[in-house]
Amino acid sequence: MHQRTFDLNRHSPIPNYGVSYSHPLLYQNPRIRISDFKTNCYTHHNHVIRTHVPVNCISYGIDVSVSKHRRLSSVNFSGKKEFDVATLGNLCVDVVLNVPNLPPSSFDERKNYMEQLAKSPPDKKHWEAGGNCNMAIAAARLGLRCIVIGHVGDEIYGKFLLDVLQDEGINLIGMREDDDIINSSSSAYETLLCWVLVDPLQRHGFCSRADFSKEPAFTWMRTLSDEVKRNIQKSKVLFCNGYGFDELPANLITHALEYAVEVGTSVFFDPGPKGKSLAIGTPEEQEALAKLLRFSDVLLLTSEEAESMTGLDNPIAAGKELLSKGVRTKWVIIKMGSKGSILITKSGISCVPSFKVEVMDTVGCGDSFVAAIAFGYIHKMPLLHTLTIANAVGAATATGCGAGRNVANLQKVKQLIKESNLNEDDTFWNKLLHENLNKKEDITILSKKTANNEFFKHVTLQKVVSEVLHKLEVPLADRILSS
After folding, report:
1. For position 476, what pLDDT does the model report?
2. Closest by alpha carbon to 235, among 403, 456, 87, 386?
């Protein structure tokens, strides 16, 4: 969750994921891109499908209804799920550079700034895999079988990205239409670069060519190929995030969502900072966002993002609102920065404080966090255990520099869990949970303490740690045996 931004806000803190730290790092809000799409019709199995999307600014910003000609429903397809996780779009190469100043704020000046950077390829030591590669690498290091679905070019950056993915045991399923191959020399087919710029105060600025276009970077993509569909069907989880809209047309993302639902593939969606701009974007973007919020199995948001989607400043209340409006939603996960994370289901609330670490860089922490949530979901782990692993993976990634190949490895995650240095804040959690008491719900929180109270249950850290560490050994052993 980090790539393309338009406005450089030097005063907003970067959200962190299961991490506690003291020095500030800055996060840039995404631009609002206005695309020009003509229709919200698309083809599926040779039938034209039309959807109607009334916009409602109350609640989380958008209401969506599917016409009587088509309903989203899960169909049981035979066939083995060969992959654990597939990611959709958002594949790029990060070029990480230390700069004396962050890029200027004006559109033209920033465009000129980036063009100057791009005149000659930077030293390869500054290249790193970015975007959804972060999530896939973190998931693969947990022992999950991963594929990435997207487009990379045939130039040096694309070859670099393919090499990184191959080294991590991750397959790329390319998105390219046959009638476009003859034009593959066009810049529209080049691997997307994201310039990750770090100033002396460790503040980050991001820019790419997608920032300066009204349309997605790969607007030439119109349909999902049969190969892409087969691999969605073969995957247990399809992960989408808001930054995918920088690359892929909104109706293509909607098509992927609907197909995943049909073939019994669970959908994870993390709108990220892009969610706010998508909610007021083109009709196609609003429709895609609304469907993703309603038909995804798992939603992941920061507390700020949850508030922007619902208008509710209480993270638990916002999570419950999203859950209540979901058609298929099983989990809503709210990332609380240095406080920890919350997982909300229809029957209860699970809370896990963050791990204390010395933070080097928060880029890639959110992507790593999602990978660990997928691990727990696929292995049907208890909810507290899933959040514990996710907080640990996010925190372990923060101790490195940058994302890509620098995301947490399994040994670092296990070490952090063994150390069990929780950032407990009883005052914060007691206040938050008492504001959302419902005696019909099971409320549990991970704690070093064993005492419970009348309203919610403390689960001991020692018990969870031993069970989590045991579970983490299983995929590692399987991966070694299969290599």
Report:
1. 56
2. 87
- Cα separation values, 18 from 103, 363, 370, 395, 427, Å: 29, 13, 11, 6, 18
Instruction: Label each residue of the chain as H, E or C.
Output: CCCCCCCCCCCCECCCECEECCCCCECCCCCCCCCCCCCCCEEECCEEECCECCCCCCCCCCCCECCCCCCCCCCCCCCCCCEEEEEECCEEEEEEEECCCCCCCCHHHHHHHHHHHCCCCCCHHHEEEEEHHHHHHHHHHCCCCEEEEECCCCCHHHHHHHHHHHHCCCEEEECCCHHHHHHCCCHHHCCEEEEEEECCCCCEEEECHHHHCCCCCCCCCCCCCHHHHHHHHCEEEEEEEHHHHHCCCHHHHHHHHHHHHHCCCEEEEECCCHHHHHCCCCHHHHHHHHHHHHHCCEEEEEHHHHHHHHCCCCHHHHHHHHHHHCCCCCEEEEECECCEEEEECCCEEEEEECEECCCCCCCCHHHHHHHHHHHHHHCCCCHHHHHHHHHHHHHHHHCCCCCHHHCCCHHHHHHHHHHCCECCCHHHHHHHHHCCCCCCCEEEEEECCCCCCCCCEEEEHHHHHHHHHHHHHHHHHHHHHHC
CA 254 distance to own-chain centroid: 17
Q: Are 351 and 319 in contact (CB under 8 A)?
A: no
Given phi > 0 = left and psi -120 to 50 = alpha, else beta, which region is 274? alpha
Q: Which two tokens stand for residue 361?
A: 């860089």
Q: Which amino acid is at 132?
A: N
- Return the higher-pLDDT residue of 20 and 164: 164
**Alpha carbons 66 and 107: distance in angstroms, whole number:** 38
355-382: per-residue pLDDT in tens? 998 887 777 888 999 999 999 999 999 9
